Amino acid sequence: MPVETVDRARLELDAEAERIRGEIDELFGRLLVSRNDGRDDLYAAMRHAAIGGGKRLRPLLTVAASRLFGIARDRALRVGGAIEAIHVYSLIHDDLPCMDDDDVRRGKPTVHKMFGEAAAVLAGDSLHALAFEILADPETHEDPFVRSDLVLALAKASGPSGMAGGQMMDLAAEGKSLDLSAITRLQQLKTGALIEYAVEAPCIMGRLPSEARTPYRGYARNIGLAFQIADDLIDHAGDADAAGKRTGKDAEAGKATFVSVLGPERAEQQARFLVSQAIEHLADHGAEADLLRALARFAIERNH
Amino acid sequence: MPVETVDRARLELDAEAERIRGEIDELFGRLLVSRNDGRDDLYAAMRHAAIGGGKRLRPLLTVAASRLFGIARDRALRVGGAIEAIHVYSLIHDDLPCMDDDDVRRGKPTVHKMFGEAAAVLAGDSLHALAFEILADPETHEDPFVRSDLVLALAKASGPSGMAGGQMMDLAAEGKSLDLSAITRLQQLKTGALIEYAVEAPCIMGRLPSEARTPYRGYARNIGLAFQIADDLIDHAGDADAAGKRTGKDAEAGKATFVSVLGPERAEQQARFLVSQAIEHLADHGAEADLLRALARFAIERNH
């Protein structure tokens, strides 16, 4: 691809990412209004975690994939907000002292550091419920069949057969030497399931039959793993300031990662291969898939 | 009411409660099958908390209210199972050291005592997701509008504007002297919202318009408060063996309860008044409401 085309795609991706960060902040700002009663701290904790931080990768994926099927932007944003609510709840619980015990997240104190552990547990639980409240609201989609399917797929992607199950595998794996296929399986649940849902949800809104979803699932699975490898490389490189969180903690915890198994060079090659595979899945699409292509191409070049 | 009628109603309620305990255990047994991978402990923790314990009051309410609208028992049971999954997740998180720090629940060690705190957080999160997975599954109801409405109402009842919000109010209230109306408001969110949902869900399945739901909401609100007063009386009486959990902890934590504000005698009177009000709301119904009436009458006579 000529250099000027690459540059333009990059600029467009950055502009879209910036716009979505603003829109998701605005959505949470609207949904998380404190009630001026005994729940003030709960709403403050939810706002602290949900507003003004993060790459908003999952909503960006949902908006980008929604372009393929002509889905209205405000719908894609509400679904993206629901996914982000799940992602943020999992970060709050993950950061707890009994889990990863982290003090800093997205360059700010973690929720339990600011509001205490009990409020952090409840803020996570509240964002968890909020995600399903958003999806089941007729404002998200007028077709109840679509709403119900969005809920069912998100519950599966975030529950014991998805994200939460992957987190448990991760805990169980501490100090064990996993091979590449075990790490891949773990990460496909822990981070992959929700990323896959971010692309699956537009397929549900576009009422694609199950068999027509295969290429988009393939795209999502490939970039999910590529992003995880990029994350592992950042953690390995250990620039805490750029990452906005503590780095080097996987090695410290004795956790097997793509980088510890493959080494940084082969891990990077693997990420590039996965990105090319992801883009390959979009071969039937024209310019409407450019944002998804740019996302795949540039997201592994980030340093945080 | 003649003594023999009271006795028969009591026997019928006990038989139905016993049957539902078996059916809910069977449902969770089917849904929570361990995968023989790194998630074994997660499923074991979920099963430990969800199977073989508890009064199953909420599923019992859902089944009893479903009789009013001719809703099939297997549907009522699945919805009751979803509510119970939310209830159990909230108990697991509530028992954590950073929350109420309890070692015993339903006469067994709490989840974090058996499986560790991290697994307890994840087991709660997993049951939370499972509740919505059950409701959005076409097996629960063939009408997607009903499924979507069941999800929306449960998300509201369990999230920051319902149960989780009430739990936060409860934390914020420690050591403060609440008046009767503040305690009522707190308990209406903390325990009342989910009990109300247990009766609202059959109204949704019966496709009752909103205005026709008023008496059932009234019934649920009255018995929700009556049950809470009964709980406070048990905690106050302090028989830990009968309660299956630590008692006297409200006084210990300096928490205002119905009993601390009203005193045990007036609290009991108030509970009886609420029960009579609850039954009054069912005046338009015949024998099909007998189970709901018996539930209201006898549930405050339990000692655990």
Plain-language structure description:
The structure is a homodimer of 304-residue chains. Helices cover 70% and strands 1% of the residues of chain A. The first copy, chain A, is mainly alpha-helical and 304 residues long. The first copy, chain A, has a single domain, classed as Farnesyl Diphosphate Synthase, CATH 1.10.600.10. A two-stranded antiparallel sheet of chain A has the order 1-2. In chain A, strand 1 (104-105) and strand 2 form a beta hairpin. Chain A is globular and about 55 Å long.
SSE layout:
Two copies of one chain form a homodimer.
Chain A: H1 3-31, H2 40-50, H3 57-66, H4 73-94, E1 104-105, E2 108-109, H5 111-115, H6 117-136, H7 144-158, H8 163-173, H9 180-205, H10 214-237, H11 240-243, H12 249-252, H13 258-262, H14 264-280, H15 290-299
Antiparallel strand pairs in A: 1-2
Helix pairs in contact in A: 1-4, 1-15, 2-6, 3-4, 3-9, 4-6, 4-9, 7-9, 8-9, 9-10, 10-14, 14-15
Features:
Prenyl_diphosphate_synthase (chains A, B); Farnesyl Diphosphate Synthase; globular; mainly alpha; 304 residues; 15 helices; homodimer
Q: Return Rg of chain A in Å.
A: 19 Å
Q: Unreliable stretches of chain A, pLDDT < 50, 5 or more residues? A: none
Helix content of chain A: over 70%
Q: From the 3D structure, determine the CATH topology of chain A.
A: Farnesyl Diphosphate Synthase
Main-sheet strand order of chain A equals 1-2
> Tell me, what is the CATH class of chain A?
Mainly Alpha
User: Shape of chain A from CA axes?
Assistant: globular
